[in-house]
Amino acid sequence: MNKKQLKKYVEEPALLSPSDTRKLSLLVDDYPYFQTARLLYAKGLQINDEEKFQQLLQTTSIYAVNRSKLYDLVAPVEQNIEDNQQSETTSTTEQPETVEETPAIEEPIQETIEEVIQEDVTEQVTETIEQIEEAVETTIEETPAIE
Fold this sequence. Notes:
Blueprint lengths: L2 H9 L6 H13 L4 H13 L5 H11 L3 H24 L12 H40 L5
Helix pairs in contact: 2-3, 3-4, 3-5, 5-6
């Protein structure tokens, strides 16, 4: 998977196919702390209704820096499915069993993924700066004074 494909899926996660989900699985295996890939992989499993989604969701939540972003990414579709199932049981007319995603759901997902990426980058930069500052302080403390 290249950067262009990854960016396409960040912008439109609904485009994830089963083969793309397998590619994301390999990417997550190679880079386990790559949160964006992990979130897209979970979303791909959810879209393709694979049985591994619930198990992976638990693992993904462990790796997630901000679990509320993960919830925002996957909850709207689950809520939509539950709402449709409830309306099917109460309705007297038959409704199609497929659930179509609405564009109103895709925009928050894209914004959520972009926010998660921004938060990850910000947190990583902050951690790096803190590590550098600690190293500089240690070096200064350990350097003998010149008299």
